[in-house]
Design goal:
By secondary structure, the chain is of the alpha+beta class. The protein contains five helices and 15 strands.
Length: about 250
């Protein structure tokens, strides 16, 4: 049985996220939504889209590694690239019970902050990509936070990220995260079953869609390890690799 979940963002990790920030805000005309720093990492989120659609990309850099070096170890081991996808849930307890009932083993359960409670599904169970489940009091209404950012700038402090680039053109739209797998059907119990993605047919395949506009496409890729293959962007002229991640024009 699926949980009440919504795909919130895809996260990319790198020792230096400045090239990605410049690409997301300049080439793709993205909007910096929020940022900050925590034990072991510092994040910043960029909406690749506008009030009508698109998805958020979270950039992660290792930070304060003497207290927590999980992200530094990830970057050292795999290099820059996709790190996780975050699904916001209405109730983390219900989501954890559903995950266990479906045969998954949540790890990294953290309930100390009522504003942000989280757990993770390990990539060995999530077919190559860390899946974060998060219950949060943060507002999700896009119109509200876009109006706030327009009036006040990005939320969060300290402001550690490089200055955004002026947009090179109209807003582009991150339409989907494409996952490659040698057995695509094996991913459906997680993304369609547990996380409640709704199938939407397209000429080039089938997407799984969530209420906030997030979409995942699962493709047969026997030649590569399972996981995030690329991010498809409407309005991007040509494939571009940034911080170990392929951004490509939309296909269908």
């Amino acid at each position: 049985m699926g949980v009440d979940a919504d795909l919130d963002h895809v996260a990319l990790a790198a020792a230096d996220t400045a090239p990605a920030m410049r690409f997301l805000t300049g080439t793709l005309a993205g909007t910096v939504r929020s940022g900050g720093q925590a034990f072991g990492f510092r994040p910043v989120q960029v909406l690749v889209g506008d009030i009508t659609g698109g998805m958020k990309v979270e950039l992660l850099e290792p930070w304060d590694t003497e207290h927590n070096d999980f992200l530094a170890r990830f970057v050292a081991r795999t290099g820059s690239g996709p790190h996780h996808m975050t699904f916001k849930v209405k109730n983390l307890d219900i989501a954890l019970d559903a995950a266990r009932a479906a045969g998954f083993t949540p790890v990294g359960i953290e309930r100390s902050d009522p504003r942000w409670q989280e757990a993770f599904l390990h990539p060995s169970e999530a077919h190559g990509t860390v899946v974060q489940l998060a219950q949060t009091t943060e507002g999700t209404d896009r119109a509200t936070w876009l109006a706030y950012v327009a009036a006040n700038g990005a939320e969060g402090s300290p402001r550690w990220w490089v200055d955004p680039e002026p947009p090179a053109g109209p807003a582009a739209y991150l339409r989907r995260v494409v996952l490659g797998a040698p057995e695509p059907a094996a991913l459906l119990p997680l993304y369609r079953g547990l996380l409640g993605g709704v199938e939407v047919a397209h000429a080039d395949g089938t997407d799984l869609a969530w209420p906030g506009g997030g979409r995942v496409r699962i493709e047969l890729r026997p030649d590569v390890p399972p996981g995030v293959d690329r991010l498809e962007v409407e309005g991007l002229a040509a494939p571009t690799n940034v911080v170990g991640t392929w951004f490509t024009p939309t296909k269908g």
